[in-house]
Design brief:
The chain is an alpha/beta fold. The protein is built from 9 helices and 8 strands. The chain has helices at 25-38, 57-65, 69-83, 97-106, 119-128, 150-162, 179-187, 204-208, 217-224, and strands at residues 12-15, 22-23, 92-93, 110-118, 137-141, 172-176, 191-195, 212-214. It has a 6-stranded parallel sheet with strand order 5-4-1-6-7-8, with helices on both faces. The longest helix is centred in the first third of the chain and has 15 residues, at 69-83. The protein is globular and about 50 Å long. It starts with 11 loop residues before the first strand and ends in an 8-residue tail after the last helix.
Amino acid sequence: MNYQGKEDGFHYLLFDLDGTLTDPKVGITSCVQYALRKMGIEEPDLDKLEPFIGPPLIDSFEEFYGFDEEQALQAVEFYRERFRTIGLFENEVYPGIPRMLAKLKRAGKRLAIASSKPTVFVLRILQHFEMEQYFDIIVGSELDGTRSRKEEVVEEALRQLLQGQKNEYDRTVMIGDRKFDILGAKEFGLTGVGVSFGYAKEGELEAAGADYIVDTVEQLEALLLQQEENVR
């Protein structure tokens, strides 16, 4: 798909965090492994735990390990035992991301984080990697499980960023690496941009109905700045 820039371009940019701006695999999977061990389950292969990257943790523990709600909540608590002190920083910023964010800000775009990760952790990660400065607002979930669905996160980000200006939805983009990000965009009629360098399964972003799919940070930058670049 070739990008054809809108007359007014994209102005409001909502970014997912995990798998979109940073690669959190080591931290997330190691903390899931730790939680499972505390629940009596040994999982030596971290690659098998990649599906935990993206969706709410409680859902993943229920779906992939058959936990009931009480067990899943306990597993999330165990996960956070390790994550808040160690796993949080077992993370890497994708090359080119800070440069792209700086260029978007200089171009006058308004940037937001819309992550299913608890806000307190999102803030610490952004501060650790010195990226907090690029975002006008930062929205995540709450530690008590409130606002963990991507649609709820996107709704709150839109409320804070646009302050009721629904006529601006057509200039607003949700960027993420999983189907949850694209479906969250569609819920509100936003443009959904998928990044293939994250953790989506083969065909996942296409099946979710992504308006654009980019394969590199450079392609993403070109798309958001309305420059000519081939994207899918």
